[in-house]
Amino acid sequence: xxxxxxxxxxxxxxxxxxxxxxxxxxxxxAFLDHSDLTPPQVRDVLxxxxxxxxxxxxxxxxxxxxxxxxxxxxxxxRPIGDDDLAIVVSFAERILDHPIILRPGVxxxxxxxxxxxxxxxxxxxxxxxxxxKIDRSGLxxxxxxxxxxxxxxxxxxxxxxxxxxxxxxxxxMIGNSPKSDINPALAAGYNAVFLPHPxxxxxEHEELSRPEAPARLIILDHFGELRQHF
Length: 230
Fold this sequence. Notes:
six-stranded parallel sheet, elongated
């Protein structure tokens, strides 16, 4: 098999991530205890705040804490004290206390892919937080490169490919997010493997693009299925 450049997403592709943010949100909703708004309505307010702040501050648990504070300040029906805000921030801070839970099939499949292909871990978020997760996952040794960027857009993929001298026909992006993994990689001229996750963050949802020839798109149900294609 021809050696391929495999660019692999981290959060919710290699390990669980968004489920811990959802747990923090549930704690936040219980603490807010709004008399009129349902949890989905509170979520809509948070989503709107996150959509704006992500462009300014980026991602990660620290920025999520900031977003929760702004949501609380907007929706709280009681006087807001410093102790209240500290509790709100704590919901986000505890996200980092959760153990790294690898997605099914990841450990053995990454080891298998490493033997024949060049692997690049490509993730966005707070650099220190993402590096910590890479270290705790134990997967770092299987990757030839690890890149952490503020946003995974078309320019980021083109810059990565230029820096690493990737050959587009032999380059694949593997991830769970249409917005950050699949569509920008296809637009950059690479191939892509979409691994849907049932709990992908709503702001990462997007209609899948139709790849321009000769780029290819593969949709798989399970990370371990990569062994059948690479």
